[in-house]
Amino acid sequence: MEKNYLKKFINIKRETKGMINIDPLQAGGILTKEARQSLLEWGDGFSVCDFCRGKLDEIKTPPIYEFLHQSLPEFIGADAVCLTHGAREGKFMIMYAIAKPGDFVIIDKNAHYTTYVAAERARLNIKEVPNSEYPEFKIDVNKYEDAIKSIKKRRSSVALLLLTWPDGNYGNLPDVKKVVEISKKHKIPLLLNTAYAVGRMPVNLREIGVDFVIGSGHKSMASSGPIGFVGMKKEWENILMKKSEYFEKKEVEILGCSVRGVSLMTLMASFPQVVERVKKWPEQVEKARWFSEELEKIGIKQLGEKPHNHDLMFFESKKFFEISKKHKKGPFFLYKELKRNNIWGIKPGLTKHFKISTFATTKEELKKVIQVFRNILGKN
Is residue 253 one of the residues assigned to a domain? Predict the structure, then answer.
């Protein structure tokens, strides 16, 4: 290999560092100062495994045992917690462990694509609960009952109900309590996908009444990732965390061990601040609503529920779309203009529809974002 070729891999820098970040995928995962230090401290390969005697959650120094058996379960109101490599692995783990091939899982139409893929991999059938379509895309949770009845008429079995709370497109928060009632009435377990909730807003499995909660460290808990977890009621612990017949300390559903290294260590290092920031969730909602109202004043329409109850929002801008048809940079003009103004988060090529999160920004930073949008519209 030529030396010039190898130089491409040395000192790779992130050009977006320091920008105002409105990317929903990144806003809740930005590391704390303590997590950045932990990243350096534990970055060497399997460094955490120096202290392992066969089971990750039994390590007491660093305090992994305390985190997984006490702090994290208490934080989300679960009886037990299992680490995964992300929310998608948690969904598959649950589906595969509690359902038989050919069973049905009922999901909301706003579910993430990995919900579908997880069900396919577990060889399950999928029944969708539709949304209300444009402009709110709300889930009518009463239709979970209709879905259950239609499947039972076919003499098929429903193994699981799944609700995305909030969804990753519109940031809608459906009536989970109503789905809990339906779940209990029909004695079907309920999985709540909170990849954009735990770590941003209060979530308590016990208080809500669901069987499973899935979280994401890299989306919402200031972790480097990829990392996620499954919180569960005690009745599911022996099923989801079943031990191998051949290796007594190894759990089958996570292939013996899941996340080890910097993903877990940054999750732990950020945890105290994550706990504190959740207490300020009402301020985050107020900030998101204010931002949405300000954008609508300049003709950028927020889709999804109103008034909005989450920092993740979906916007429609016919004006930007019309500009993109004539602009010399085409559909990339908006991305380039924002980047030039030190703003990051709207994907290249998007003009008519785009997602924004206000979670990681101050109100002053958002005022700048609004002014930049206003300036772009003014000069085009």
Answer: yes
**Helix, coil or strand: residue 380:** coil
Domain boundary among 248, 277, 306: 277
Q: Which residues of 327-359 are buried (b: 16+ CB within 10 A; e: fewer)?
A: beeebebbbebbbebebbbbeeebbeebbbbbb
Q: How many CB atoms lie within 10 A of CB 177?
A: 12
CB 193 within 8 A of CB 161: no
The residue range of the domain holding 229 is 33-277
Residues 6+ apart with CB under 8 A from 346: 22, 23, 334, 335, 338, 354, 355, 356
The alpha carbon of residue 249 and the mean position of all alpha carbons in its chain are separated, in whole angstroms, by 30
Q: Mean pLDDT over all residues of the chain?
A: 95
- 3 — pLDDT class (breaks 50, 70, 90): low
Spatial strand order of the sheet with 353-357 comes to 301-303, 312-316, 353-357
320 found inside a domain? yes
180 shares its domain with 257: yes
Would you list the DSSP string of 324-359?
HHHSTTGGGHHHHHHHHTTEE-SPTT--SEEEEE-T
**Strand, helix or coil at 201?**
strand
Q: Which residues pair with 302 in a beta bridge?
A: 315
Question: Residue 100 is encoded by which pair of tokens?
Answer: 């038989």
Cα–Cα–Cα angle for 89, 94, 99, rounded to 5 degrees: 130
Q: Which of 165, 90, 91, 173 is nearest to 126 (CA)?
A: 91
Pair (110, 257) in one structural domain: yes
Is the residue at 190 inside a domain?
yes
Please report the DSSP string for 47-64 in residue order.
GGGGG-SS-GGG--SSSH
**Once rounded to an integer, what is the mean pLDDT over residues 307-326?**
97
Spatial separation of the C-alpha atoms in residues 210 and 177, rounded to whole Å: 9
Rg (the chain; Cα; Å) = 22
Contact (Cβ atoms closer than 8 angstroms) between residue 75 and residue 268: no
Q: What span, in angstroms and rounded, lies between the C-alpha atoms of 329 and 122?
A: 44
Report which of residues 212 and 48 the model is more confident about.
212
Q: Please give the structure tokens belonging to residue 364.
A: 């002053």
Task: For the full predicted model, state whether its pTM sits above 0.90.
Answer: yes
